[in-house]
Design goal:
Largest sheet of chain A: 2 strands, antiparallel
Distance between the termini of chain A: 62 Å
Number of helices of chain B: 7
Number of strands of chain B: 0
Low-confidence stretches of chain A: none
Radius of gyration of chain B: 25 Å
Shape of chain A: globular
Structural class of chain A: mainly alpha
Structural class of chain B: mainly alpha
Oligomer: heterodimer
Strand order of the largest sheet of chain A: 1-2
Strand content of chain B: under 5%
Helix content of chain A: over 70%
Chain lengths: 503, 181
C-alpha cells in the first residue's frame, strides 16, 4: 500500500511539470466545450484531439485525452440544466430533475449538485482505479489465451446487449466491424484477405479511420440532413453555481454512494460507458431511492445519481484498458490508440515495465477531476457562450479535424477516402437505426479476439471445448451467453405481459 | 412478396454469402491439421448470415411486428420517452451537397493543396449548412484555413499537401508568408 502511495506521489510530481499542467488544462477546457456543443460528442472530441498528441510524449498525450474524457462527462450538464439542451446522451437524465429544478428558480442549486456529484463520484472512482489496477493486472497475468478470448467475446457481447438499438441491428453492426478488421494481411499466416490486390487495403483498415469516419463525419451528415438549429439561446442570464451544504449532502449520501458504485461497475464492463451508467443510476434511484416517488419533480437525487455515475464510470473504464489492454468504450479505444501510436501496449505487464507512466496517468485523473470542477465553477458563463457559434461553421471545422486526424496517423492520402466512405456508412447506419458503437468496437477488438482465438486453437489442437473446461474461461463464456440471451428473454417477457394485458 | 423492410437484412445476407465465398479463396499454407486464416472471417460470415436470415424471415412472415429484442440502453431510452431520438432528416439535397463537398475536399486536396481546399471547403460547407452571413463565411474560411495550416505545420509538425503545378507555388508562397518553411 505504501508503495502505491509513493508511486502516486511521484506521479503527481510528473503531472505538476509545467507542460503537463498546461496540457491538462487545455484538455479540460476542450472537453467541457465539446460537451457543451450539441453537435459534438465526447468521443468525437477525443478523436479530434488525437492528432495533436502525435508530437507529444506518451504521458502528456494520455493526460490530454483523459482530461477531455473526464470533463466531457460533466460539461453537458450546464446546457441540460440551464437550457434543456443535452450536449450528450449522457445528460438526458439531467433534463428530468436538473432542468425542473432550474425551472423552479433554483438553477444555481442544480448546478451545485452536478458539481458535487462529478467531484465526489470522480474522486472515488479515481481511488478505486488506483487501488484495483495492480491486483487486476496481477490476476490478468495468470490468464492464458482461452481466458483472453472469452473476455474479449464478453466485451463484444456486452456492447451489443447494453447498447442502443435492436439486438439484431447491433449484431449486424458488430459483424461488419469484425469483418472490416479482417481486411489486410493476417497476422499468423501472412495471408492476404479481402484486399483484392489494392495496396490501400493490403495494410488493413485502421480502426481510427472507422471511428473518425463513422462517429465524426457520419454525425455531421446526419445533423446536416436534419438541418442545423439556428435558434439563438439566451445565455446572458445570471449563471452561477451554489454548492450544497454538508447537511444537504448528508441527506443524499446513500444515493450518492449507490450511483458512484454503479458508475464504477458499469465503467469496468467493456462496452458500457458513461451514458449507460447515467441511465442505470437514474433507474436505480427510481427503484431504490428514499424519495423515489418524487423523482422527476426536480429533486437533488435525480441530478446527483446520473452525474455521479457518469463521471465515476471514467475511473472504472480505465481499469480494463490499463490492466488488460481492452478498451471498453469509444473514448478508451482512442486512448488505447494513443498508447499504441507511442509504442506502448497496455496490459498485465504494465506495472512491472511502465509504472513510471501509469502512476502519472492516475495522478492526472485526480487533478483533472479537481480542475474541471474549478473551471466549471468559475467559467460556466463563458463556457455556455459557445452555444452562440453557428453550427454550420463548427461542422465544417469538425470535418476538417477528422480529415487531418486521419491523415496524421499514417500520412497516407488514401486514408481520407476511407474515412469519407465510413462517414457515409455512419450516416446510413444512423438513418436505418443501426448502432455505430458495435461496429467500431468490432473493428477494434476484432484483431485481438482473432489472435486469441487462433492461439487457443493452435495451442490446444483445435479443441474449442477448452473455452468451457477451464474455470475462468467457462465463467466468462457463461456471462457471454447471459449477455446475449438477456435482451431476448426481456423481449419475450414483455410480449407475454403485453398479450396478457390486451387479452 | 418480399417486404420493403426486409431489404437491408437481405442485402447483409448477400454480404455474408459473398464474404464466405471470398474467404474460401484465401491463398495460404497451413500445416496439416491446423486451422487457417479463413476460419475467423467464415465464422463471422456464418453468424451474420444466420442473424440476417432470421430477420429477413421474421419480416417476410410478418412476425416482426412483435417487439424486437433490444439493448439495455435502448430499453432505458424507450422507458424515458427518448427512445426514438431525433426524427430522421428530410433535407436530402442539403445532405447530398454536403457529401459532395466532403468528396470534393478528398479529391482536390492533393491537386490544389491544403490551404486553398480548406478555405473553399469551409465556405462551401457553411453555405450548404444554411449559414447566410457571407461576409462572416469568407473571413472564417480564410482565417480558418490559415490558422489550421499554421497549427498543423508548426504545432503538430504535419506535412500537409501543397498541391501540384501553380497551386504548389501558391501554397508555398502562403506557407512562406506564415513563416513555415
Amino acid at each position: 500500500m505504501l508503495d502505491i502511495f509513493a508511486q502516486l506521489g511521484g506521479g503527481f510530481l510528473v503531472v505538476f511539470a509545467p507542460f503537463n499542467l498546461l496540457v491538462l488544462t487545455i484538455g479540460l477546457v476542450l472537453g467541457l466545450l465539446v460537451a457543451v456543443l450539441p453537435g459534438l460528442t465526447l468521443v468525437m472530441g477525443v478523436v479530434l484531439a488525437l492528432p495533436f498528441t502525435y508530437g507529444m510524449g506518451l504521458v502528456p498525450a494520455i493526460i490530454l485525452l483523459t482530461a477531455m474524457y473526464v470533463s466531457g462527462t460533466y460539461g453537458g450538464a450546464f446546457t441540460a440544466i440551464l437550457f434543456r439542451i443535452p450536449g450528450e446522451p449522457i445528460d438526458v437524465p439531467l433534463l428530468w430533475d436538473g432542468y425542473k429544478m432550474a425551472q423552479r428558480g433554483e438553477p444555481a442549486k442544480a448546478l451545485g449538485w452536478t458539481l458535487f456529484a462529478a467531484l465526489g463520484g470522480g474522486l472515488i472512482s479515481a481511488c478505486v482505479l488506483v487501488a484495483l489496477s495492480a491486483p487486476v493486472a496481477s490476476f490478468a497475468l495468470t490468464l492464458s489465451s482461452p481466458e483472453y478470448f472469452a473476455i474479449l467475446l464478453f466485451g463484444l457481447a456486452s456492447v451489443v446487449s447494453l447498447g442502443g438499438g435492436s439486438l439484431a441491428h447491433a449484431l449486424i453492426s458488430l459483424s461488419l466491424g469484425l469483418l472490416i478488421a479482417c481486411v489486410g494481411t493476417d497476422a499468423i499466416y501472412g495471408a492476404e484477405r479481402f484486399a483484392f490486390g489494392i495496396p490501400m487495403l493490403q495494410d488493413g483498415i485502421e480502426y481510427l479511420l472507422v471511428m473518425v469516419g463513422a462517429y465524426g463525419i457520419g454525425e455531421v451528415f446526419t445533423r446536416l440532413e436534419r438541418g442545423y438549429d439556428t435558434t439563438r439561446v439566451e445565455t446572458d442570464k445570471r449563471i452561477r453555481t451554489e454548492l450544497p451544504s454538508p447537511r444537504e449532502i448528508g441527506n443524499v449520501k446513500a444515493s450518492f454512494l449507490r450511483s458512484t458504485l454503479i458508475g464504477i461497475i458499469v465503467g469496468i464492463v467493456p462496452g458500457a460507458g458513461a451514458t449507460i451508467a447515467s441511465f442505470v443510476a437514474y433507474g436505480a434511484e427510481g427503484q431504490y431511492g428514499k424519495r423515489r416517488r418524487e423523482l422527476g419533480t426536480g429533486i437533488p437525487e435525480g441530478i446527483l445519481a446520473p452525474q455521479a455515475a457518469a463521471t465515476s464510470s471514467v475511473g472504472g473504464a480505465l481499469i480494463p484498458l490499463i490492466t488488460m489492454g481492452i478498451p471498453g468504450s469509444g473514448a478508451t479505444a482512442i486512448i488505447l490508440g494513443a498508447f499504441l501510436l507511442h509504442g506502448m501496449q497496455p496490459g498485465p505487464q504494465v506495472f512491472a515495465t511502465s509504472s513510471h507512466i501509469v502512476y502519472p496517468i492516475f495522478a492526472s485523473l485526480f487533478l483533472a477531476i479537481l480542475g474541471m470542477c474549478v473551471i466549471g465553477y468559475f467559467a460556466i458563463k463563458l463556457l455556455v457562450r459557445v452555444l452562440d457559434l453557428p453550427e454550420a461553421i463548427v461542422s465544417a471545422f469538425v470535418v476538417l479535424f477528422c480529415f487531418i486526424g486521419a491523415f496524421a496517423a499514417r500520412s497516407n492520402p488514401s486514408d481520407l477516402q476511407v474515412i469519407a466512405v465510413f462517414g457515409v456508412l455512419g450516416w446510413l447506419f444512423e438513418r436505418l437505426r443501426f448502432p455505430i458503437a458495435p461496429m467500431v468496437l468490432g473493428a477494434i477488438l476484432g484483431p485481438l479476439a482473432e489472435n486469441a482465438f487462433m492461439t487457443t486453437m493452435i495451442a490446444h489442437d483445435n479443441n474449442w471445448t477448452v473455452l468451457f473446461t477451464r474455470p475462468v474461461a467457462a465463467v466468462v463464456m457463461m456471462l457471454v451467453a447471459l449477455a446475449l440471451l438477456g435482451p431476448i428473454i426481456q423481449a419475450a417477457r414483455s410480449r407475454v405481459e403485453n398479450s396478457a394485458r390486451s387479452g | 412478396v418480399i417486404r420493403r423492410d426486409a431489404a437491408p437484412y437481405a442485402l447483409f445476407l448477400l454480404v455474408a454469402i459473398v464474404v464466405w465465398l471470398l474467404a474460401d479463396r484465401i491463398d495460404f499454407y497451413a500445416p496439416p491439421g491446423r486451422i487457417g486464416p479463413d476460419i475467423w472471417p467464415k465464422a463471422i460470415a456464418l453468424f451474420l448470415g444466420v442473424v440476417c436470415t432470421i430477420e429477413t424471415l421474421r419480416r417476410v412472415l410478418g412476425s416482426a411486428k412483435n417487439r424486437d429484442a433490444q439493448g439495455l440502453l435502448q430499453t432505458l431510452l424507450d422507458r424515458s420517452g427518448e427512445g426514438d431520438g431525433a426524427p430522421p432528416g428530410t433535407n436530402t439535397r442539403r445532405l447530398l451537397l454536403g457529401i459532395g463537398a466532403v468528396a470534393g475536399f478528398v479529391l482536390l486536396v492533393g491537386v490544389i493543396g491544403f490551404v486553398l481546399t480548406t478555405a473553399l471547403f469551409i465556405a462551401a460547407f457553411a453555405i450548404i449548412g444554411g449559414y447566410r452571413r457571407y461576409g462572416v463565411v469568407m473571413i472564417t474560411a480564410l482565417v480558418g484555413a490559415l490558422l489550421l495550416t499554421l497549427l498543423f505545420q508548426r504545432v503538430v509538425y504535419l506535412s500537409l499537401p501543397i498541391g501540384v503545378g501553380p497551386f504548389a507555388t501558391i501554397s508555398l508562397g502562403i506557407l512562406a508568408a506564415l513563416g513555415v518553411r
